[in-house]
Specification:
The structure holds two protein chains of two kinds. Chain A is mostly helical. Helix content of chain A is 71%, strand content 0%. The C terminus of chain A is likely disordered. Chain B has 13 helices and no strands. In chain B, helix 1 runs antiparallel to helix 12, helix 5 packs antiparallel against helix 10 and helix 7 packs across helix 8. The longest helix of chain B is centred in the last third of the chain and has 38 residues. The model of chain B has no long low-confidence stretch (mean pLDDT 84). The chains are: A mainly alpha, B mainly alpha.
Chain lengths: 286, 307
């Protein structure tokens, strides 16, 4: 067992190790960061407004300073990270599951079903997701569930395209034909045999999509159209701190830096994973 | 070639029609427009009157046909806040956005492609690694953070204030948001240019060209460039989406009076007619751009002309 693990980590570049370490730290911070502060994220005190972080001469009990309502920035960053993390993970999985199933369905059914699904893919591909999100948020009342679903739309069309292509080529493989000859239903063939074979493609796309969902959520929340107060997210904290950019830069730059390194780390780890999983690249290297 | 063109054209029209349909369905799903437009606290009769006046008592398919008809005649409705036509509001803001987006694209192309080519020609050197690191950086950097960083550094270190109140058409005031907007595309261009050059320089015809004694510069200009340009044209089409999406946020950060700002403000104030028009305008632009990319393929890729 240890042999296998060192086999995985053995040729891992330092940049990727640091990236994975950052992601781990971020998750721990989001889940258990509350222990670092005695304040809650909603507790406001106007007497303690806009305190700088401790290293810039702030107060002992506010390690990273306070915002314009006198709320503890550290506590807000913990909760903001938690919400951003939840939205990113749930959103990514919604997109992956919906998109992949639609792609498989298109490949399995062909005909009219395929035409409709692929036309919808074309529409999505011709509209940046943030524009779709803005349209939906203008038409419907913003709620956390709706926002989560919108983030989940990110990249569904890519999954649909990828799985459809992979499934169409898998259909032609000997194993699929053999199983069909043995009398398996096509649902069974798709879910038990073809799906596991296209899973690699989906997994790679997942690592490309995860940072995109983080960036979309924070961008929309930054515009004031995403997560709504009293709840908070990293983008929402930035949006509140924006007016104080020049006087209290830590209110925007700290959540911003967390977002940037998170997106960067996931991308680096994803690039590395893609190189390991993509058989065509492995062949070139061998 | 005729088949190639006609399928592309048909697909573009179908995509546009489907977008219009989806927009129609969403707006209808959101609630009763008559109840929203009628004054508050009125009886059902008044709402019914409004419904009749707006044609909402017609069957849904008839409403849909009317809707597509009015759009086709270029009537896109009026802003509920200013009372001005949505089209006029859009045209007012378009020049500012075009200038920002155009400059951003120029910066992205002008910096990104040379970086990618240099990286490919110096494969596995520190230059190559530096360019690749830059492209990952550009991908992961949220444009609102970069923009705020630029404003912060500009203000603290150089006493330059971007955004609200600054002279829009001075070079500095344009370059800061344009660089912010172009950053993401710049990284993508560098990465793509690198991989498509790498793919081309290892092809057998390149070895043959070298064997014939063709000088390096000529090999790069006449043999590598045309082949590497093909995937880049695809990316050009895709980067338009990145630029449009990015301009929404960038305009907000730098208080740039463009279409992106109009869109965000209309979403916040729920000015449906304006939002609807802007969504259709974005879709139309993207569809048209993809069509242009397909045409461009005809010019740069002679293989398609034969098909």
């Amino acid at each position: 067992m240890t042999g296998r693990i060192s086999g995985i980590f053995g040729d891992m570049p330092w940049a990727v190790r640091i990236a994975l370490f950052y992601v781990l730290m971020f998750v721990l911070f989001a889940l258990f960061g509350d222990v670092l502060t005695e304040h809650t994220f909603r507790e406001a005190s106007l007497l303690k407004r806009l305190k700088p972080p401790l290293f810039l001469g702030g107060e002992d009990s506010f390690l990273l300073g306070t915002d314009e309502k006198g709320r503890d920035l550290l506590a807000r960053l913990v909760v903001g990270s938690r919400i951003t993390l939840i939205i990113a993970i749930v959103g990514t999985f919604i997109g992956a599951i919906v998109g992949s199933l639609l792609g498989l369905l298109a490949a399995a059914r062909r005909g009219a079903t395929e035409t409709v699904i692929m036309a919808a893919v074309d529409v999505q591909a011709s509209l940046p997701i943030i524009i779709v999100a803005l349209f939906v948020l203008a038409v419907f009342d913003n709620s956390f569930t709706l926002f989560l679903l919108l983030i989940g739309l990110t990249g569904w069309e890519v999954y649909a395209r990828l799985t459809r292509g992979a499934a169409l080529s898998a259909q032609e493989h000997g194993y699929a034909i053999a199983i069909r000859a043995l009398g398996a239903s096509s649902t069974r063939i798709y879910l038990r045999h073809i799906l596991p074979n296209v899973l690699n493609v989906v997994l790679v796309q997942l690592t490309i999509n995860l940072p995109l969902t983080v960036l979309l959520e924070t961008a929309l929340s930054f515009l004031g159209l995403g997560v709504q107060p009293p709840l908070t997210s990293l983008g929402q904290i930035m949006s509140e701190g924006r007016d104080r950019l020049l006087t209290a830069w830590w209110l925007t730059m700290m959540p911003g830096t967390i977002i940037f390194f998170l997106a960067l780390s996931i991308s680096l780890a994803g690039d590395w994973l893609r190189d390991r999983l993509d058989p065509t690249l492995r062949r070139i290297r061998a | 070639m005729f088949l190639y063109l006609s399928t592309r054209l048909l697909r573009a029209v179908a995509t546009m029609l489907l977008t219009v349909t989806i927009v129609f369905v969403f707006i209808r799903l959101s609630g009763d427009p008559a109840a929203a437009l009628a004054p508050p606290d009125v009886g059902q009769e008044v709402i019914d009157q409004y419904r009749e006046k707006l044609g909402l008592d017609q069957p849904l398919w008839k409403q849909y046909v009317t809707y597509v008809g009015t759009l086709a005649r270029g009537q896109f409705g009026y802003s509920i806040h200013t009372g001005r036509p949505a089209l006029e509001l859009f045209l007012d803001k378009l020049p500012a956005t075009l200038m920002l987006g155009g400059t951003a694209l120029l910066i992205a192309l002008g910096v990104g492609i040379p970086l990618g080519v240099v990286a490919a020609l110096n494969r596995n050197s520190p230059i190559d690694r530096g360019v690749m690191a830059f492209s990952v950086f550009a991908f992961a950097m949220p444009n609102f953070l970069f923009g705020l960083g630029v404003i912060l550094i500009g203000a603290l270190a150089f006493q330059v204030f971007y955004g609200s109140g600054s002279d829009l058409f001075s070079l500095g005031a344009l370059l800061a948001p344009a660089a912010t907007l172009g950053l993401a595309s710049m990284g993508a261009f560098a990465r793509f240019a690198r991989s498509s050059v790498l793919e081309t320089i290892n092809k057998p015809f390149m070895i043959a060209a070298e064997a014939r004694g063709i000088p390096r510069v000529r090999r790069l200009a006449r043999h590598v460039a045309p082949n590497a340009a093909i995937p880049l044209v695809t990316l050009l089409g895709l980067s338009l989406g990145t630029l449009i999406a990015g301009s929404v946020v960038t305009e907000q950060v730098f208080a740039w009076p463009g279409v992106g700002q109009l869109l965000v403000r209309s979403v916040i104030t729920r000015d449906i007619a304006v939002v609807q028009f802007l969504v259709l305008a974005v879709a139309g632009t993207m569809v048209l751009a993809n069509l242009l990319v397909d045409l461009l393929y005809l010019v740069i890729d002679p293989r398609i002309r034969v098909r």
